[in-house]
Amino acid sequence: MSSDLMAAMADDLVLGIDFGTTCTGVAYAFPGDKDADPNMVRTFQNWPGATPGANGKKVPTVLTYDASPPHHLLEWGFGAQNPTTTPGISEEWFKTRLGDSKHDQEHTKSLFRDYLGCVYTALMEGFPPSKLQGISWQDAAIKFIFSVPTTWRLDVVETFKELVHEAGFGRFERHQVQVGLPEPHAVAAFEVLYESGQFFNSDGGPLLEGKPVLFVDAGGGTTDFCVARMGESKPLQPTRLANVFTHGHHIGSTYIDQSFQKLIETQLRSFNLTPSHDAQNTAVLMRMLPGFENEKHRFGPHNDVDFQIPVPGLKDPTMCSSSTISSTIRGGVLRTRRCDLERLFDAQVQPLISDVDFITKHLSRNQGIHVEDILLSGGLGSSAYVQHRLREHICKDESTMARLHISTIPRLAVCHGLVIHALHGGVFHSHCSRVSFGLVCRVRKPRSLESTFQAIRTKPKRDIGGNDSDNKARLKDRSFFDRWGAVLSQAKEKGRDKVIDSSGRSWIDNCVDWFIKMDQVTHTDQPISRKFSTFFAQDLPIDGRICYVRIVTSTQSTPSVFGDGVDVGTHTFLKVDLSTIPTHEVEEKNTNLLSQAIGKKPHVKVEFLIEATIGLADAEIRCFDLGKRKILSQAVRVTANPHPSSGDSSHVPQTCIHVT
């Protein structure tokens, strides 16, 4: 048994929660139950209001409020799915509103809290002590794991975390909450890891070890993509995924629902309806009733019959003021032409295909990676029509020559993958960075640029003579030139010739050390370190030795070393407390009488390390002393979202860090 699995077995219950735009799915496992298979993942189905025969595996993401102030919550989930049984104000599709300035964020957050609170209560009631080996819900060791779409910015993810906690998750001492695994990565974990340790032999044949796979999770509100190279593994051992490339787009079945509602409303306006049965309300009702959902899921490439949806109240004589009934409605059923529905589906399928083309061609052209397998999951991905259109396109595209696989449980792959990912202690050990990450710094300018680097440019490393200390110094100079030579040579034409400090030294200001470039492969277990220094006046109190490191990102794989690209944005500042660095590790400068006689001010130089761990959706950055014995800053998380914020620095002291 792996150490990761043994660690996971400390939990009594692991819950994977896929909070979706249209429906929410939950999977679970009992890793601490000695009588149960720790790898067995089940789907939670004990949702309130789910009728026998209904698809209770996922609960609708719907709320119904009282129409009268103060608008109390009346129903949620299955109870709010049918507006005829619970009249009031219906709220749905609100997941896509979080972080969107076009919508009232306080109201959206309130909806999140209410819905997540209902989910929490249902889970608490669904796991009594009899299911937790006699342990109460409050005392059990429970891990809640939430996925997030790749379209969410880091600030949106952080807001979602807060709302999850406010809804009740993590309120007890032994309850843990984890938020942040992107949805397509959860799918990848599910498809790669399961009981036998082998790849799923899904539609299209088995996935191939060592080959890149494009995972497409086409859900309700977003379609999320990731490309992962399948690592090699021995039988019965976890397989890890490497070289992950991530992308997201607002494509989903929700937009088909919205378009269908508009189509039905337009068709119903041809009737002279009474105010109690107006076209808009009737269209909403028809879209929310099971008839539409059932027909939508049955819709496929070889279904030639028209789309048929019952019209509520049509047989009621008050429904129409005219006895003339349109030929599109017969027997209380609205018949919509197949071509109309195809048009609604194609409006989502076409951008999905375009994204698949973009990703596969981008990887082939820029990285030499040829995607041979595409795996489709999600609610929209479960559609036979969507599967047919994507497979048809792939077969016609000779440049791709990929095989299409369909997830074995497309609508539940995310929540199951969350649990599997937790049971095996993580699946992704390396991935491609979605953006370039950089640190704003100063680079020292030599008195004579050409004389300093002439020998380094022309003399091979093996010919560098002298003693060991000379060799180390010259090799350090060569490394410095390789890293910063372009900056120093271009500084003058960029208008950044030099900045003179209090000691008379010349620096190139506002350079960027891009320590990770976009599309560069990084490893989650191999942090990246950079050595920097900063200077303080000698008479400054030790507790005042604080510096601020500006962290920036760029969507370019070769961003400007001067940080002047239009795509470069500040995300945050790292506050570094250097007051705890021991005196013997602090270098004093300009303390002799000669230096002071010529006007150089005494100061101290403090060196430190900045370390970054690049994750799937963000980077965690913190500061250490040179020996990594002391943590000098709180860890900050920087999003891998390609749209950074403006980064207001008006309240941050302008302390500079220097390349060492």
From TrEMBL:
**Listed SUPFAM superfamilies:** Actin-like ATPase domain
- Which InterPro entries does the entry link to? ATPase_NBD
Q: Which domain of life is it from?
A: Eukaryota
What is the protein named?
Actin-like ATPase domain-containing protein
